[in-house]
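re the bet — no i am not wrong, look at it urself. input seq straight from the record:
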Amino acid sequence: MAVDKREHIMEHAISLFADKGFEGTSIRDLAQVAGVNVAMVNYYFGSKEKLVEAILEKKSSYMKDRIEELEANTNLSELDKIDALIEDYVNRILNGASFHKFLYKELMDTKRDVIHTFLNNSFARNTRNFSAIIQKGIDKKVFREVDPILTVTSIIGSISQVVVSKSMCNQLLLKPEGNEPYADEAFKQRLITHIKSMIHAHLLVK
């Protein structure tokens, strides 16, 4: 099977950005790690900023499509859809914890306006689409009158807080420093169960 060079470059770039950050990653380093020449990287992306945008578009479009798919599914209840999205977000964020920390740093940094704006727009779009599912549950009187946008923000924020610092996470879990909590399936399930329980209590009419 032929290797998709563009995807191949992006996968290596994700690892480098997660490890070294934006400033610490050079196109030359990326070309060397990916086993391609600098001209090929420039051909596909043009610049480091455009490369990051392409990665962000790929990652954010997955959740956009997933949310839209669930929203259109008439066989699932709104609560089932929210549970499915909680599982998706936990797995995707923890599986890419290092890269998520890179994104969080970029979101807080306004030096690169194009990347900052893209991140804001994609996060806001997915949050609005996710919150539409919650609003539908409210309209059906299945959920209480909550703030849908802030409810989604609470879900994503709870997951993001876990990946801010592996060291802090291990301290909270009473695990040794060398432990890899994000690769621990039992920990992922613990986090999923906790967030679901918290959101169920927040949403469901007593």
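see?? Residues 77 and 137 are 8 Å apart (CA to CA). told u. also DSSP finds ten helices and no strands in the chain. so pay up
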